[in-house]
Amino acid sequence: MIQLDNFKSWRNISKETKEKFLKNSTYMEYTKGTVIYLESEQNPLIYLISSGYIVLSKTSIEGKEKYLYYLSTGDFINQCAIDGKLTATTAKVVSDASLISIDKDILLKLMKEDFELNLLILTSLTHIIRRSQRQILNLGIYNTSQRIASRLWKLSRDYGKKIDDYTLIDAPINQTDLSNMVGASRETVNRFLKELENKGIVILKGHSIIIIDRDRLLDYIN
């Protein structure tokens, strides 16, 4: 029960539903680099991230992998399994992670019994839809610099860890990952990050990115 009570989003779910969920689920630990499932395969399981980070990606016709979202503790993945069709993305572990998996039919039954669980799953899907809409908007109207700045700002919002007056992006994301996420070359991303560093907006420390001034970063987007 402690596993689920630790997730803020589960606090309105009844004790009975939590017990049924855990009784019918499987807890697994995965090492960095493990592929949980591949795009376009049959997988009836829906996963709740207990710890760590997962990246969802899609592969283009040319075979290029495009990172879509980073997800972490408390997030669901593979909710699309609800309709019984093939997986929409590939899910890969980017830092050691633990996941709780449950069969879609069992989850659907629990959702019918508990409206709050139903609302939780719907909210998780809404979150993905909103992120997808923002990505489409970014690709449609933003230039490369704006896309990088926008992604940095959102990463600092979603995974930011305060260090004095600065914000560390506390997620296993390097410059190659960032270039994949914004659809630009690593060289372009590196050049823009150096520009931001020279202007005192970010600090590059090893593989870490520290945001000094989020407001000035926002100016690049606008």
In short:
Helices cover 43% and strands 28% of the residues. It is α+β, with helices and mostly antiparallel strands.
Task: Describe this structure as you would to a colleague.
- There is one protein chain.
- By secondary structure, the protein is of the alpha+beta class.
- The chain folds into two domains: 4-139, Jelly Rolls, CATH 2.60.120; 142-220, Winged helix-like DNA-binding domain superfamily/Winged helix DNA-binding domain (Arc Repressor Mutant, subunit A, Orthogonal Bundle), CATH 1.10.10.10.
- Helices cover 43% and strands 28% of the residues.
- It has eight helices and ten strands.
- It has helices spanning 2-5, 15-23, 104-113, 115-141, 144-159, 175-182, 186-198, 214-221; strands at residues 25-30, 35-37, 45-59, 65-71, 76-77, 90-103, 160-163, 166-169, 202-205, 208-211.
- The strands form two sheets. Strands 1, 2, 3, 4, 5 and 6 form a six-stranded antiparallel β-sheet that branches.
- Helix 3 crosses helix 4.
- It is globular, with a radius of gyration of 19 Å.
- The termini are far apart.
- The mean pLDDT is 91.
- InterPro entries: cNMP-bd_dom, cNMP-bd_dom_sf, Env_Response_Regulators, HTH_CRP, RmlC-like_jellyroll, WH-like_DNA-bd_sf, WH_DNA-bd_sf.
- This is cAMP-binding domain of CRP or a regulatory subunit of cAMP-dependent protein kinases.
- Residues 9-111 form the Cyclic nucleotide-binding domain.
- Residues 142-215 form the HTH crp-type domain.
- One of its GO terms (molecular function) is kinase activity.
